[in-house]
Amino acid sequence: MRRRPRDPDAALLDLFLLWRVGFVSMLLLLGVFGVFSWILNAQGGSIELARAGAVNMLVAGSAAYLINSRFLTASTLSLQGIFGSRPVWVSIGAVALLQLGWTYLPFMQLVFGGEGLDAPHWLAILSVSVAIYLAIEAEKWVLRRRR
Questions:
Q1: Residue 72 CB partners (closer than 8 Å, separation 6+)
Q2: Each residue of 71-80: pLDDT tens digit?
Q3: Is residue 88 part of a domain?
Q4: How many domains, in total, are found in the chain?
Q5: Which of 58, 63, 74, 102 is 20 to 30 A from 47 in CA distance terms?
């Protein structure tokens, strides 16, 4: 509400937002397929386990970007930046509970063809999500330095 209104004739997505959508999409794509391949190949996991890892990576990576997108170009690397929006954390908590149900409830595993993840899988998902968050913060830092 502190910003001036957007020009009604301006494009919905300007070049910066198109770049950001492409950049974040590429990071999420790399993260999802990276976790999938790691579980399948390096860990010797089943396709069901790799699928569960990939879906959980997409959800965790999206949550990391949600926290990051609190400010479009300003840094969120502070307690206020990360924890400053209670509705974001309530939403992330609700999605996390639903995602745990999707991952571990037997009928959900049957319907979606997944398996429960172990601690090393969750550690990898968390690590890649933090890496995505930090990569976007680095991109914001570069943008701020260029302006």
A1: 20
A2: 989 999 999 9
A3: yes
A4: 1
A5: 63
Q: Is residue 44 part of a domain?
A: yes
Full-prediction pTM beyond 0.85?
A: yes
54: burial class by Cβ within 10 Å (0-12, 13-18, 19+)? Answer: buried
Q: How many CB atoms lie within 10 A of CB 116?
A: 14
* CB of 57 closer than 8 Å to CB of 32: yes
- What are the C-alpha distances in Å from 77 to residues 1, 10, 84? 22, 30, 11
Residue 23 lies in a domain: no
Q: In terms of Cα–Cα distance, which of 67, 38, 41, 78 is closest to 54? A: 38
